[in-house]
Structure formats: structure tokens, C-alpha cells
Amino acid sequence: MMKRPLFTICLLLLPVLLFAEIPPAVGEMTLREKARAVVGLQRKLFPPTNNGIAGRTAPLPQYGLATVALADGTAGVRLSRTAPERSTAFPDNNALASTWDAALAREAGDAVGYEAFGYGVGVMLAPGVNIIRNPLCGRNFEYFSEDPLLTGKLAAAYTDGIQSHGVGACIKHFTCNNQETNRGSVDVRIGDRALREIYLKGFETCIRESHPWAVMSSYNQVNGTPAQEQEWLLTGTLRGEWGFDGIVMTDWSITKHNTAAQIHAGNDLLMPGSERQIEEIVEAVRSGVLPEADLDKAVARLMALSERCGTPREPGHPDLARGAAVAEKAATEGAVLLENNGMLPLPPGGQAALFGVRSYDLIVTGTGSGYVKPAAISQLYEAFHRQGIRTDAELDELYLKYVAFTEADIRLNEKVKIHLGIGLPFLPELSVSRTLIDKAAERNDYAVLTLGRSAGEGVDRTLKDNYYLSDTEKELLRNVCEAFHAKDKKVAVVLNIAGVIEAASWKDLPDAILNIWFPGQEGGAATCALLTGKANPSGRLPVTFARDYFDYPSALDFPYDKPSEGKNYDYTDYSEGIYVGYRHFHTRGIPVCWPFGYGLSYTTFACSGVKVKKNRSSLTVSLTVTNKGDRSGKEAVGIYIGAPSGGLDKPAVELKAFAKTAELAPGASETVSAEIPLSELASFGPRGWETARGEYTLRIGADPTTPQATARISIKSVR
Ligand code: BGC
Predict the structure, then answer these.
(1) Which of 95, 159, 346, 387 could cross-link to 210 by cystine, CB 3.0-4.6 Å?
(2) Most ligand 1 atoms within 8 A of CB, residue of 369, 422, 457 to mutate
């Protein structure tokens, strides 16, 4: 663990100690009342209303402490499964990150905050700020990116949006919760530098820029101690260094932790809460194990939260049309066009053959606490019809019957356990005969094949039949491509996936590939608009698609082979250090399937007039983006910076700023600019954060491997 001299720790904690005001009401509470206040109200103690589905805080009205309703999740407000009300299912965070658009992330957060307020929620348990370290993590769709800057900036914008409605955001899971296998107690073994630069950085940015009202401490251990029991993390770093002024709540404990240590470390709220924990706190204070002052601080912070949230509200009836419009916009801009040999946009007229179960039953969002029961679902085949495009009636009938039958069969016979009881059963892909495919190729003008991957909390994805295509999927893809190509007709693949899959071995078979991730409830409409050219794709990858799983630097240090003890189960070594994602692939020149930042458009853009100015403590970078094609569209720009050689070992480049243009008409230009604090160029060495002096190189363009412009700047002094 990070060792600091006692003096430094005292200095860091000084502001926390000085400013932790304890309201007089806390002094009037009995010890048991204080203990009750910091332990969540068990679900059985409150009726399943729609506003506190994940839990709520215990009220002590005689002291002015009101209950606060806590609701998941990362794709919108998760309401009770049995309630008739619905909420909007938004695109998941990795789809939102693919927009590379902080303004849109704020808009999405704002739409979530609006519904959360309407349903009487006090704090949303979102966004997920963990780093996408390995493609198999079951909750990657709840996180933004492999890059901490993209993660932190978008999470901050999303948090601002939620909190603009007087609803708090609880950013999670702090920290290093990058695998679901044995998430309750796996020990993450990690060096200080990777911890600071990669795994804490996104949280730090989000906290400094948007001041979330809450942080959720994660289940896992970090270097031998549960994250929830680490004072240097929850108090020293979070509050002392970063100035966090909200509450820390534990994740919904699934293993037994040390209650007194959790409060002492800086947790203010133990969720979901049990009577046993109340007794343990009382006992710990009485026996002198837990200083009562720690408890007082936690109660004081909960009182401040209750004041921020105001009088508890009964669930109302927010206008869901508002969320639907934002969900569609975000799904459209979060989709990434990965391949296109001229097939897209689809020509007007003609009839489509839709293959793949997910063309008829989209995976809107993941399972577990990230699942949202959608207000409505826009299916792809329906969106085609709404846009006046005919689809093959025989295939429609076959797939719709298969979906209805299989879902009913799964539910009735419980053949597949519905994950955590929340979410949708996983429908296996349907095997379609070659004869039927050949006939479909005769009577249709092109094919669209949707491939899906569900995922969710508590389980990591597998390599077989998940990261890699299943045999049924491979056969379907091969047969559809062969049959349609034999008739000189084209095939587009739509990826409706939780996270990265293997694509290098088959990406050259179809004519186009569009990745829509988990696009939320408006996914069908958004996908159809992109395929037909009504909308121009502008999404860029927030993660690297490697050529193969074993190319990822964390491949062997992840439970890919489903261990049940030992390495990658009891402990996981983060031996790749800071070399996560493109930091590894780009620096070491390892070829990939599609790089970080990659994405195609129906138009082309050029960057010109790059200017880099060194100010006292920042750099200002500006450039002009021009639409050189014949369709309007938006462009994402990444500013990647490479540090001077010598000193600490560094990745070739790191993303230091990004921007997205407005919709640019053909020939139109926009000047984008970014201010980069010099402190953002620092690396975490043995003496703390250090910014090297010397010549820095800038690579400008969404994807660092093919920059549109380059520049250099010399930094002689750093203040
Ligand atoms: C998840 C959290 C979630 C909480 C409440 C936990 O199991 O890890 O992300 O917010 O449950 O549902």
C-alpha cells in the first residue's frame, strides 16, 4: 500500500479535520441512534416503492434527518420490477463514451436526473467510473473507457447533468473493481503508479470537476486490504487530496467486512444495512475500537446529504418522451461504424433480409443492477418498417416466432437462470438452413445480420461462445455472406454487444460493420437512421479491439479460464501497470483489429492550422476541422501528447484532451480548442507527480495511430 510519512498524512487530513463541522443535533443523539443513522434501512423495512429500489437511508426525523432514496443505475432509473411504471433505458456508458461528446454526456445525465427527481430518487447510483481493463469484465458496459481522461471528463459531465436536478450522483466502484469473478474479495495487486495514473485518475477528474454528492466504495481488496477499509483512500486521497465533500457509501456488501474499520476508513453509510451492523458499531465504540468522533463525522455528512436532497418526494409521473429523445440522440452518436466498403448508407428502395435474433429482439441494456425496464423498445425490424423499408416477411415470421417461443420456454422452464433475477434471458442464436438463406438472397436486395452479447453484474464473460463467435454465429455469418455475395448483393453486420469481441478473423467477410453496443430503448430507430444515412455515424471507439484476446496485456492476469481459487480469483496481479489499452498497443506497435479512437463516417474531415501555446501553467491547443466530403457530419478530435524521453518510462502518447464538433455541412469548418493544465502531463513517480521538461509531441486526430496533424512544444519550466 501507499506508504507516506505520518507528517504528510496529517497535512493531507488537515482540511478534512478542520472543516468537518458536527451539527449540534449529532451531539444530542444517543450512540445507538448514531449507529442506526449510518446503516442503510434494510429493504424489508420499507415497502417496495418505485423511488428507492436499491435501498434508502434510515430516517431520524426528531433530529431533522430525512430518508434518502437510492436508485440504480448506469443506464437510467431502475424501478421496481413489479411496478407498472417504466423509465427510459439510455445507452450504456461505453456507448455514451463512444460519442466523445461531453455536452451530450451532460444531456444524458440531465435526462436521467429529470426522471430520477420525478420518481422521488435522492441519489442515483451512477455513473460507473471504473476503467475497462480487460474485454471480459462483465460490467464493462457500465464503464466508459480504457482511458482515464475520457472516463473522467464524460463521467463529470454526466454527473453535472444528474445533479442539475437536485438529485445526487454516486460514482462507483471506488476502486479497482475491474472483474466480477470473486468481486467480493479478490485482492487487486497493483503498483502506486498504475493506481494513480489509470485507476484513480478518472475518479479524481470527476470529483474535482463535478463534485458528486456520493462515492461508492468497492467490494474488492487493494493490495491486501478491502478498499472499503482503506483510510488513505477514502479519507486521505478522496477528501484530503481531492477535496471530496460528499458521503461515501459501501457497495451492497456481499461478504463480511470489518464494520468498525469501514466507518473509521471514511464510509458514512453501510449498505444495504443490517441490525447486526448497528450492534457492531455500538460495541466498537463502547470498547474503544472505533472513536466516536468517526461516527459523528459520518452522521454529520449524512445530515448534509439529507439537506441537499430536501424533503423526500413520493414517486410522480415524469414525462418519458423527454428521455426517449435524448436516448435516441445518444444511441445515434454512440454507434461506431467499423467497416464500410461502400455498402452504407443503404440505397433507397429495395428490400432487406434481416438475420440474427437481435434484429428482432435488441439487447437494450445489461443485466443486474445496471438493468432498466424500458418504457418502450424500438426494435430494428420495426424501425425499418417505420422508415418505409420492406423486410423479408418469411424471415420476420421465423425470427419473431423463435424469439417469442424461446423466451416463453426459458421463463417457463427456467432453463437459463435469469441473471440476478433482473434482466432478460439470453437467447441463443438461431441456426438457419443454407437453403433458406439462399432463397432469401434471391428475393432480397441486401442483408443485415445483428449479433448480440449480453452481460451483467456478478459474472465475467467467457472466451468461448462469447468473446469469440459461437459456431452457429460463424456458420450463419459465412452462409449469409456467401449466399448474398454470390448474387452480387451486400451484407452489413450490426454488433449489439456488451463489450469488445473478437472480430479480426471475420471482419473482412461482410461489407459493413456497425457497432451499436447496448444502445438503450431507442436502439432500433438510431441504428436504422445510421444504416440508411438519415444520420451520419460519428462515434469513435473508447476501447481497443485487439486482434485476439491474448494480445491484451491483462489477458493472463484476468479470470479468463474461470478459476475458482488462487491466481485471478483470490488475487489478480495488475502486472501490465499503466500499459492498459492503447498505451500498450500503440507504444509497442502491436497491430490491432480497430484502434482506440477509431470510427468511420460517411464524409471525410481534415484538421488544419494547429496552434499550441504555452501559458504559465497550461497549454492551449487550437485547430480547425473542415468537412471535406459531401454529407454533413460531426468529427471527434483527440489531442494525444507524447512526453520527452528520459526520466520515467512513458507510453508513446496519452490522450490529454478531446472535442467534438457541431454538425458541419459539406465544406464547413469549426475551430476547436482545449486548455490542458501542465499538471495533466505529469506521471506518478517515486516522489509523487512529476511533469518532465523538454520537447513534447502532439498527435491530433481521434485515433492516435493515424493522426491528422502533429505539433511540438517545448516546456522548460513547470509551475
Ligand atoms: C452493485 C452496485 C449497485 C448496488 C445496488 C451492487 O451489487 O455492485 O453497482 O449500485 O448493488 O443495487
Answers:
(1) 159
(2) 369
